[in-house]
Amino acid sequence: MKNIIQASLPVLALLFMLGLGAADQASPGKSAKILFLHHSTGENIWNGGLEAWLAQYNTKNGTSYAIRETAFPNEPYEWANYPYDYWLLWVKHAGKGYQGQPALEKLARENTVLIWKHCFPGSALEEDSGQPAVDSDVKSLENYKLQYNALKKKMKESSNVRFIVWTLALEVEGNIDPGQAGRAREFVRWVKTVWDEKGDNIFLWDFHALESESGLFLKKKYSSGGGDAHPNEAFSRKAAPLLGRRIVDVIEGRGDSGSLTGQ
Questions:
Q1: Model confidence pLDDT, tens digit, residues 80-103
Q2: Is the residue at 263 inside a domain?
């Protein structure tokens, strides 16, 4: 037994150096319960065929990955799902639920994977004030960072769950100015290069890169038109399988090594 342990140490050390923790090594098995929390942009992607794609994957691969979706937050809470709102619901009111919304602890007990996102008005980031506040609903880089760091700490407490967080959905050009869009892109860069860590139970789906093609705004060819920043049907059909692939990668232990866009 001693020799086996000693022989395993170099392998474990190599995995540590590569930044590959347990969350990116083990699969929960052939079954998983997935909950997709969203508002209207997420609904468009859902309607693009996400459930059908996953069903086809299950048939082909002998898996039982069950996905369902729900609006979150929903009535009686206001129709807002920005970093402040997730902080308020899941961190400030941890374990309690608030205004009819389930606490993170309850969602974590019931699901294997939780997917959450923000609506495109969240990309209208204002200039920093120099006085960041985690309990502020002002959309700014300084506040978003505090709220995301608090959310990361909270999500790590539910180590049995794998979280998939969308990068920011965007407005079309003309609805926000280049300064706001630039700060949104800077937030996404920070989320991808600083906030996200290998080896934990939190993963990203880079929706921002897909819909902007790494630019400042939602590409007009992908929008519903007329200044509407909801993704159109063609883009939604394109994006849904990519989210499906990202979900499968996360479940099957490729969350840190697979493509952030699912491509």
A1: 999 999 999 999 999 999 999 999
A2: no
